[in-house]
Amino acid sequence: MLTKQSFRQFFPYLFGDNTVLKDDLKQIIKGKLPEPREQGLGNIIQGLGIGALILIEVAALLWLVLWLNNSPYANDAREIHKSLTGLIEAYLIGHGGMAVLHFLIERKRFN
Predict the structure, then answer these.
(1) What is the DSSP string of 44-60?
(2) CA-CA distance, 70 to 89, in Å (whole number)?
């Protein structure tokens, strides 16, 4: 995903560009769903998920290498890997929360 689309699209806040994010948050506060767009809330949440997956995979590979080499640090790497899985949990809650919000707003629109 990061090779097909720009890094900045998923992480605009790292470049100080929060214009689209602020606009999306204002729309949510007003009870409206923001349209999917570059540098928007949907892309930012997706970028956080991608970042979390990358961190977890790196930690898992480090743990594997240390474990295969009988390193005394293998358990520490395992604990780091387990801690980082909290990032995926946060991503799932955020992503799932947006899906539920989308469903409720769309349902309200058609009633």
Answers:
(1) HHHHHHHHHHHHHHHHH
(2) 30
